[in-house]
């Protein structure tokens, strides 16, 4: 949270915070307030024309967290097109697995 609060225009520490909040047991309720702010920061970066893999991966994670299957599929395709190194996609897959695992015990399902 401190990283995102230092500069809320940088979505990268924000998505890390929201994902970790989702993975807590129980999930941190602040994630619902933070998600739209992180999403806005991410959309601004994507609109800048300087987006890289991490910006699209952030959009993917945000879509999964919001249970938006359509946006998640679109973001996944865009992220995969931007992969430079295999470890980037592996890192994102790890984060998505954290979300899925956190949601599985309560029957919430990663994408609803």
Structure summarized in a few sentences:
The chain has 112 residues and is mainly α. The chain is built from six helices and no strands.
Number of domains: 1
Helical residue percent? over 70%
Overall radius of gyration: 13 Å
Strand content: under 5%
Q: What's the count of strands?
A: 0
Task: Please identify the structural class as seen in this structure.
Answer: mainly alpha
> Which sequence of SSEs, written as H and E, runs from N to C?
HHHHHH
Distance, first to last CA? 26 Å
Could you outline the blueprint of secondary structure elements for this entry?
Blueprint: H1 2-6, H2 11-23, H3 31-47, H4 53-65, H5 69-82, H6 86-103
Helix pairs in contact: 2-3, 2-4, 2-6, 3-4, 4-5, 4-6
Structure overview:
- With 112 residues, the chain is mainly alpha-helical.
- The protein has one domain (2-103).
- Helix content is 71%, strand content 0%.
- The protein contains six helices and no strands.
- Helix 2 runs parallel beside helix 4, helix 4 packs antiparallel against helix 5 and helix 4 (53-65) packs parallel to helix 6.
- It starts with a helix and ends in a 9-residue tail after the last helix.
- 29% of the residues are buried.
């Amino acid at each position: 949270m401190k990283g995102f609060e230092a500069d809320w225009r940088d979505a990268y520490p924000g998505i890390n915070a929201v994902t970790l909040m989702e993975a807590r047991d129980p999930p941190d309720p602040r994630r619902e307030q933070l998600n739209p702010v992180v999403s806005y920061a991410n959309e601004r970066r994507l609109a800048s024309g300087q987006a890289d893999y991490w910006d699209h991966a952030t959009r993917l994670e945000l879509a999964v967290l919001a249970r938006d299957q359509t946006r998640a599929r679109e973001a996944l395709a865009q992220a995969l097109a931007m992969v430079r190194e295999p470890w980037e996609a592996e890192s994102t897959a790890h984060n998505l697995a954290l979300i899925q695992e956190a949601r599985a015990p309560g029957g919430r399902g990663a994408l609803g």
